[in-house]
Amino acid sequence: MDPYALKTLNAERRARRAAILVTDLGDGRDRIVREGDQVAGDLGVAIDRAFRTGNSGSVEAEGRTFFLNAHLPQPRLVVVGAVHISQALAPMARIAGYPVEIIDPRTAFATPDRFPDVALSAEWPEDVLTRQPLDSYTALAAVTHDPKIDDFALKAALDANCFYVGALGSRKTHAKRVERLLALGASADQIARIHAPIGLDIGAASPAEIAVAILAQTIHAFRSRGLESKGAVA
Q1: Where are the domains of the chain?
Q2: Which ranges carry the XdhC Rossmann domain (predicted)?
């Protein structure tokens, strides 16, 4: 590998940004393509697919053979609210390959006994997310139903372009949330990205069922990144 390409790739990985090392198997030349870079033709289609799936492999394009070595940050799930839904969601998400962190300043809820083997921060989201910023490979689910706890985290998730942002509550509750987020400086386009009511509409009623709906919606959001602008997502 070209030393400059390796240096660039390592810098992208440290910053939790996706990149693909594209190697022309005919002449051995390689280059780094960052997520969002425009690449035309069949090669561009293959690169877009590799960014969505994280799968590496060889492709034929423009009469040549290329190897795409995909490097994607591991997606993670930050849950604001140490509630019953979170207790069900944390082990499910871990099985699906999404490391989970629970944030809730209410120390009666955010306890190791209720969340064994889960990264737990019994602090305000403002403090945690300043120290550990969100990014585009993070999903955020706000489930406390308390604006004092949820709103800052939601605004931070929108500003960080998290790939998934969901919030618990009815449509009436969300309408009031929208007003508050606008007052905090969020744009209407940003707010439109929030999934509220949270989770896929599967008729979920119990905390465990709501957790399933949230995880399914999170996975769908991750695997369909970038397709919305191309009109390919129903």
Answers
A1: 3-71, 76-223
A2: 77-217
Which residue matches tokens 């604006």?
Answer: 147
Tens of pLDDT along 119-171? 999 999 999 999 999 999 999 999 999 999 999 999 999 999 999 999 999 99
Rounded distance, CA 216 to CA 194, Å? 15
Which residue in 89, 180, 68, 202 sits closest to 140, CA to CA?
Answer: 89
CA 56 centroid distance within chain: 20
The CA distance from 140 to 120, in Å, is 15
Which letter does DSSP use for residue 74 in this model?
Answer: P
- Alpha helices by DSSP H, listed for the chain, are 3-14, 41-53, 84-95, 125-131, 147-159, 171-183, 188-191, 207-223
User: Which pTM was predicted?
Assistant: 0.86
CATH of domain 76-223: 3.40.50.720
